């Protein structure tokens, strides 16, 4: 009786690799070893991710609470419920006080978002519900809005500040919201299904560079061949390092070995269409 291999994530049958494919894969691995030796590039072995997704999420939540506390303190100061006197000039006091709370709010919100994105790389959410997956992935942006928009609205409506102070503080708060939103967004989220498929399909080490969000199956890939430093590690380490999509050049080269429909494949600049799975 022939052995039947079934993918755990969706129950689809996986055809075992032929001897010819195994030989090609072994030859390709040998070529990569030779290429690494000849290239003269610095190949850095990636280190496993430290910490757990629960720990990163807990840290993010604590920092978001602190950010909200700073926003609340700024609102309380704005409504004159309390104030701190640095000098005899009340307007100067209020300007310094409000900007101080906004800066702290910004720092806490941005750091929290980075921790949240790190947790999503370690343990991503399922994309079965696209809306919830989007909300979960963009929690940093959502919290940035909550941490600044109410304060900005009150600043615009306030008549307790002089025009100059109001203009400066509102501009600082708006800039903080914009920067926090941009840096907190997850532009390349990965789902639990995509990560599981990558870990199942790609058993050899992958490669990535200092910048970018893609990992590569071949060290001689045209997208990274000119990079001075290349990191090497498992696909899990690549995803947890923020490289959530497979390079489409590598995907095209290995199309007969991978289920590209289940992986996170993005087209490269200059390509007209995404790589389709081999027939």
Describe what this molecule looks like in 3D.
The structure is a single chain. The protein has helices at residues 19-39, 53-78, 90-122, 130-137, 139-157, 163-184, 192-201, 235-240, 248-253, and strands at 5-6, 13-14, 42-45, 206-208, 214-215, 229-233, 245-247, 265-266. The protein has 279 residues and is mainly α. The chain has a three-stranded mixed beta sheet. A three-stranded parallel beta sheet has the order 5-7-8. Strand 7, helix 9 (248-253) and strand 8 form a beta-alpha-beta unit. Helix 2 runs antiparallel to helix 3, helix 2 runs parallel beside helix 5 and helix 3 packs parallel to helix 6 (163-184). The radius of gyration is 25 Å and the shape is elongated. The two termini are 26 Å apart. The model is unreliable at 268-279 (pLDDT under 50).
What key phrases describe this protein's structure?
279 residues; mainly alpha; three-stranded mixed β-sheet; three-stranded parallel β-sheet; 9 helices; elongated; disordered C terminus
Question: What's the SSE blueprint?
Answer:
Blueprint: E1 5-6, E2 13-14, H1 19-39, E3 42-45, H2 53-78, H3 90-122, H4 130-137, H5 139-157, H6 163-184, H7 192-201, E4 206-208, E5 214-215, E6 229-233, H8 235-240, E7 245-247, H9 248-253, E8 265-266
Parallel strand pairs: 3-6, 5-7, 7-8
Antiparallel strand pairs: 1-2, 4-6
């Amino acid at each position: 009786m022939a052995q039947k291999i079934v993918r755990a994530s969706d129950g689809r049958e996986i055809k075992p690799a032929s001897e010819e494919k195994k030989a090609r894969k072994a030859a390709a691995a040998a070529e990569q070893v030779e290429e690494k030796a000849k290239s003269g590039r610095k190949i850095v072995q990636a280190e496993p991710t430290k910490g757990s997704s629960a720990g990163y999420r807990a840290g993010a939540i604590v920092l978001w609470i602190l950010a909200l506390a700073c926003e609340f303190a700024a609102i309380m100061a704005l409504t004159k419920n309390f104030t701190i006197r640095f000098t005899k000039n009340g307007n100067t006091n209020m300007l310094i006080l409000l900007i101080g709370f906004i800066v702290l709010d910004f720092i806490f919100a941005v750091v929290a978002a980075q921790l949240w994105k790190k947790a999503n790389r370690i343990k991503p959410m399922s994309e079965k519900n696209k809306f919830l997956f989007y909300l979960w992935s963009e929690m940093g942006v959502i919290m940035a809005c909550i941490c600044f928009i109410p304060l900005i609205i009150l600043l615009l409506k306030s008549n307790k500040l002089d025009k100059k102070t109001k203009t400066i503080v509102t501009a600082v708060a708006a800039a903080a919201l914009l920067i926090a939103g941009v840096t907190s967004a997850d532009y390349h989220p990965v789902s639990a299904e995509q990560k599981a498929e990558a870990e199942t399909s790609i058993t050899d080490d992958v490669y990535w560079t200092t910048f970018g969000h893609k990992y590569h199956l071949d060290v001689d890939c045209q997208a990274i061949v000119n990079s001075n430093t290349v990191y090497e590690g498992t696909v899990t380490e690549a995803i947890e390092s923020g490289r959530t999509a497979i390079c489409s050049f590598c995907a095209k080269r290995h199309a007969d070995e991978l289920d590209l429909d289940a992986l996170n494949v993005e087209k490269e600049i200059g390509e007209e269409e995404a790589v389709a799975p081999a027939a």
